[in-house]
């Protein structure tokens, strides 16, 4: 016997031992990758970026959404040996935009400066390696 009652906003359901011993009759339906309402991950089955993914935390739709999309797309599709090393300009534009909205995009000065310097250093190393390779 299942008893259901409402207490406040919670619903309490009591089940007997027999209820738990009976196999479930629930049917599992395979996810439809074409279902526009289905939660998808960051990368869609097509390989495209899912800009509606909750994992992006709204970054793609904020005031710097276009800069974010540009930088993230560049990184995602980058074929450079050091992935994303060809995207420094896009990431710099994104960071400059975000600095205009400190309330929306709080920044930890030391870490942000460090990550930008790291990215720039990686880009310079990649450029130097590319030039060295081409001159050989």
Outline of the structure:
The chain is mainly α and 136 residues long.
Give the tags.
single chain, 136 residues, mainly alpha, Helix Hairpins, two-stranded antiparallel ribbon, 2 strands, disordered N terminus, CHCH
Describe the structure in your own words.
By secondary structure, this protein is mostly helical. It has a domain at 59-107: Helix Hairpins (Orthogonal Bundle), CATH 1.10.287.2900. Helices cover 42% and strands 7% of the residues. The chain is built from 4 helices and 2 strands; from the N terminus they run E-E-H-H-H-H. The protein has helices at residues 17-21, 65-77, 88-99, 109-135; strands spanning 3-7, 10-14. The protein has a two-stranded antiparallel sheet with strand order 1-2. Strand 1 (3-7) and strand 2 (10-14) form a beta hairpin. Helix 2 packs antiparallel against helix 3 (88-99). Mean pLDDT is 75; it is low at 1-7. It comes from Tychaedon coryphoeus (Karoo scrub-robin). One of its GO terms (cellular component) is mitochondrial intermembrane space.
Low-pLDDT residue intervals, each spanning 5 or more residues: 1-7
CATH architecture of one domain: Orthogonal Bundle
Structural class: mainly alpha
In spatial order, strands of the major sheet run 1-2
The main pleated sheet reads as: 2 strands, antiparallel
CATH top level label of one domain: Mainly Alpha
Radius of gyration: 24 Å
**3D shape:** elongated
Number of helices: 4
Average per-residue pLDDT, rounded, comes to 75
Measure the end-to-end span.
81 Å
Helix content: 40-55%
């Amino acid at each position: 016997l299942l008893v259901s009652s409402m207490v406040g906003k919670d619903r309490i359901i009591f089940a007997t031992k027999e209820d738990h011993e009976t196999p479930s009759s629930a049917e599992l339906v395979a996810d439809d990758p074409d279902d526009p309402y289905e939660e998808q991950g960051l990368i869609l089955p097509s390989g495209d970026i899912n800009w509606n993914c909750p994992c992006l935390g709204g970054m793609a739709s904020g005031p710097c959404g276009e800069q974010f999309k540009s930088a993230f797309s560049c990184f995602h599709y980058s074929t450079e040996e050091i992935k994303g090393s060809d995207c420094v300009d896009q990431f710099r534009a994104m960071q400059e935009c975000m600095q205009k909205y400190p309330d929306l995009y709080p920044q930890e000065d030391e870490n942000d400066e460090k990550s930008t310097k790291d990215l720039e250093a990686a880009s310079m190393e990649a450029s130097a390696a590319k030039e060295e390779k081409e001159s050989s």
